[in-house]
Amino acid sequence: MSATRFTLTTLGTGAAVPATGRYPSAQVLNVGEALYLVDCGEGTQERLRQAGVNFMRIGHIFISHMHGDHYLGLMGLMSTMHLLGRQSLLKIFGPPELREVIEVQLRASGTYLRYSYHFVSLVPANGVLIHQDQRVSVEMLALKHRIPCTGFVFRERTALRPLRLDMLHLIPHFKRSAVKKGEDLLLPDGTHYPNKELTLDPPPPRSYAYCSDTAYDPALQAFIAGIDLLYHEATFTTALEARARETQHSTAAQAATLARDAQVGQLLLGHFSARYRDLRPLLDEAREVFPRTTLSNDGETYAVHQRTAV
Ligand SMILES: [Zn+2]
Q: Of 69, 217, 228, 298, which one is the catalytic site residue?
């Protein structure tokens, strides 16, 4: 298992209206202590505080779509970052309309943010790369919803190759970073060491996919194949499948069908309708199709493990 942290904290797992104990959608992915916020429903700031997350360290925010339960907490969060003196750049990815909403609110309140933000407009398309940094690459998913809606696939970028302790004495300090990146070693006396004699294989990269909100869509299968952890909305039970179709949401069994067909490692269900006080029926229906299913809870943290380790 890799030593680098790769965890998901679900801050809000409810659908539409806040229900007892469940806030609207928001979650934070921690990859090697870099924080990526995915959706930002109302109350996200409080949820971040309760979860002990220092939100000044959030560098990237991804918003799936313009339904209020996925973004109404954003202005509050941006405003608090400003009041607390944030200076580092904030990158926001979301629908083009979101940029207008941010701009109009800042203009109306005469706010000049102390930090810069960079907005990337998204037009949903499957498998398109929208972001890459040292730790992760992020691709889009075109979800099937009443308005344009984007899902996100986070893939850990291949780690550097750890140096073999027993070979360390052979590698001059100034060559170590190149060898970790996979280069062979050529010493001044002409001795050549292939990289594989000097390094160990890095742990396989981990991956996480976020699919909310969406109707059941088998077209997603190819783009989330083999993902280690899939978060998929499960707004309804099978009894309300017609309602799910009508509102462009999914049932728990549909989420599980996609997880099974895409051969993911683990399935985490969320975005539950407030009508369900007891979520057990959703879990049971999903597990019948895909046993490695868990219900997400507000404030809970899940480690993302390699699928092979499941
Ligand atoms: Zn929605």
A: 69
Q: Which residues, including other chains, have CB under 8 Å from residue 278's CB and lie 6 or more apart? A: none
Residue 75, Cβ density class (10 Å: 0-12 exposed, 13-18 middle, ≥19 buried): middle
Q: How far is the CA of 158 from the centre of ligand 1 (A)?
A: 33
How far apart (Å, rounded) are the C-alpha atoms in residues 18 and 233? Answer: 16
How many angstroms separate the alpha carbon of residue 48 from the centre of ligand 1?
A: 22
Q: Output the CA 241–ligand 1 centroid distance in Å.
A: 16
How many Å apart are CA 201 and CA 120, to the nearest integer?
A: 35
Phi first, then psi, for residue 230 (nearest 5°) are -115, 125
Maximal CA-CA distance, the chain: 75
- Cα of 149 to ligand 1 centre, how many Å? 8
Hey, what amino acid is at 11? L
| Domain architecture of the chain: domains with CATH | 6-159+203-309 (3.60.15.10)
Query: Are β-strands 149-156 and 136-143 bridged in parallel, bridged antiparallel, or unpaired?
Result: antiparallel
For the chain, the first-to-last Cα distance in angstroms comes to 11
The whole-model pTM stands at 0.90
For residue 216, the SS3 value is: coil
Q: Which pLDDT value is given to residue 203?
A: 82
Range list of H helices, the chain:
44-50, 74-83, 96-108, 173-180, 195-198, 241-247, 252-261, 280-289
Residue spans of the chain under pLDDT 70 = 1-3, 17-20, 308-310
Task: Decide if 69 is catalytic.
Answer: yes
84-119: b or e for each residue (b if 16 or more CB lie within 10 Å)? eebeeebbbbbbeebeebbeeebeeeeeeeeeebeb
Relative to beta strand 229-233, strand 266-270 is parallel
